[in-house]
Amino acid sequence: MTRVLLAEDQGMMRGALALLLGLEDDLEIVAQVGNGDDIVPKALEARPDIALLDIELPGRSGLDAAADLRTRLPECRVLILTTFGRPGYLRRAMEAGASGFLVKDGPVEDLAAAIRRVLAGERVIDPALAAAALSAGPNPLTQRERDVLTAAVDGATVADIAAKVHLSPATVRNYLSAAIGKTQTRNRMEAVRAARQNGWL
Description:
Blueprint: E1 2-7, H1 11-22, E2 27-33, H2 39-46, E3 50-53, H3 62-72, E4 77-82, H4 87-95, E5 100-103, H5 108-119, E6 124-125, H6 127-136, H7 143-151, H8 158-165, H9 169-183, H10 188-197
Parallel strand pairs: 1-2, 1-3, 3-4, 4-5, 5-6
C-alpha cells in the first residue's frame, strides 16, 4: 500500500479527495492536515510515501513545506495539487524538490495515476502549465524583494514592513522600488498583485 498525506485547507475538498483516493486498492490516506504548519510534524509522525500538498494554506505554504520535507523526510515524494496553475509556482515547486505539479480541475483517476508515476520515479507536470512556465521565464524578484512584497500584502506601511522584515525603512523603500520596477507596475499594491498572479510570492 502507498501511504499518502493530504494537505488541503478546504475541509470538504480534503474529505472528498481522501474518500476518492481511499477507493483505490493501492492507496491509503494516513494523514490529513488543513494548516501548512502541520505538514512536516504530521509527515514525521505518519511517514507517508507521498505528500499531496496545496500551495495556499493557513500558516506555511505548501511550497515551503515541500522544501522542508525534502530535507527532513527525503524518502517522501511531494506532489503539488493546486487551484492556482501559475508558472512561478511551478518553478518554485520544482526548486523545492517536488516530483509533480497538478491543477485541481482534473479527474481523480488522473491524480491516482500521477501518484503511481511519481512513486515510480517520474516527474508529473500539468502540460499546459509546463509550456506557460517555459515562456514566462524565471522569477525576477530577489528573496529580499519577495519578503518585502509579502509583508506589504495587507497594505502595511513602510514602517510596519521594516519592523516585520527587520530592515530600515530606507532599505524597505529601495526594495519596494526595485520590485515595482521589475514587475512594471505603478505602486507596491500593483506589484504585490502582479507578483502573486505570476506565482512569484
